[in-house]
Amino acid sequence: MTKQARITQQADRVQMTLNTDVAVGDMVAIGADRIAVAGTTALAGEENVYYVGDVVVEATASEAIAVGDTVYLTSDGKISKTADGNTRAGFAVSAAAAAGDSVSFVLNG
Q1: Which InterPro entries match (predicted)?
Q2: What is the rounded CA–CA span in Å between residue 52 and residue 101?
Q3: d(Cα 108, Cα 3) in Å, to the nearest integer?
Q4: In the chain, where the domains are located
Q5: Are the CB atoms for 108 and 53 separated by under 8 Å?
Q6: pTM summary value
Q7: Predicted pLDDT of residue 22
């Protein structure tokens, strides 16, 4: 008989140790196609709680974005429709008319 998996925690937020300082609400790339949002402030090397999915995040858009667009985290911490050179963040659930507007997206959705 195959051993069954054991669920250890809900996956909307997890504890991780990253090699960068973070402040509560910071968006950080984890791998090539995921981001996490810091739940609290932590120094590099400290364990911290990060939101990794099943939450709606509000951030600043780097351009106009429509509801349903796949969105990406840019190196300057904004949200973009451009995949090239950016990390996938999720999909938009609100529109941004222009750069600087707020946009809401489902994290890693």
Answers
A1: Phage_VT1-Sakai_H0018
A2: 23
A3: 29
A4: 13-51, 56-107
A5: yes
A6: 0.84
A7: 97
